[in-house]
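Entry:
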Amino acid sequence: MKRRGLILGGLLMSGMLVLSGCNGAGTDKPGREVYEEEETEVKEEEVKEEAPEVKEEVKEETPEVKEDEEPQVVEEEPEVEETEEELGFLYEQYYDIVSGLDDKWDQFQFVYFDGDDFPDIIVSSTVPGLNDLKEYLVITRSRAGAEVNEDLRDGVASAGGYRGDLYYVPQNGILYERTYNAPANNPGDYVYLLDDGRLSLYATGRTEITDGYTGPDDKEHLTWFWNDTEVTAEEYEKKLNEETMNLSGDALATLFYVDKESMLSRLEKSMN
């Protein structure tokens, strides 16, 4: 009995040692709390790694949501006002030009052709033998001094010939000519611009007749061209109005003219 007791006691002790070993091994392994902490750290690391990508995207999109920047203001150079002496010299040049013209140039008028405050002169003459056809000169000033623009005419050349009218748009430097061309009287237009004292052709409009054409009002039987590009009648009219400020010019033929002596007297007074 004593021996069996010892054996049983030994077995019990061994069982307790085995159980103790199992419990000891369990304490060395991470528990649920430790695992949750590691999982949280992993998640935080993932967030940290993704954060820079979000920031980069925001940086790229930022310019799109910025308010429009104010345009740079370019300061224009102030205009240099001319002295009375310089203006008087220009009137002297005008005087010399007018006094030196042939006697056929017998009608004169001051106008303000462009946007400056110095007058220009339109000169008119009736073409000998063609009482309904007039020629014109436009005397203006440039940076170099007085300029004379020639080869301008309007009126009626003869029955079935040229017919046209010249107009200038005050203060805008625009001269335009409306014509009706022989033999069918189909319409055409020429637009000139004044730049630094010189008139230059800026735009042209023309038409070609087709079968059945009856006259200037018959737009249906015309082919329309603006600057040699075919357009519709409506497009032609639109472009013409844009370039002539809606045909707002004053006819050169209807200006109130004075004779040569009167113009020279006015110029002489302005020189002093």
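The chain has a mean pLDDT of 79.
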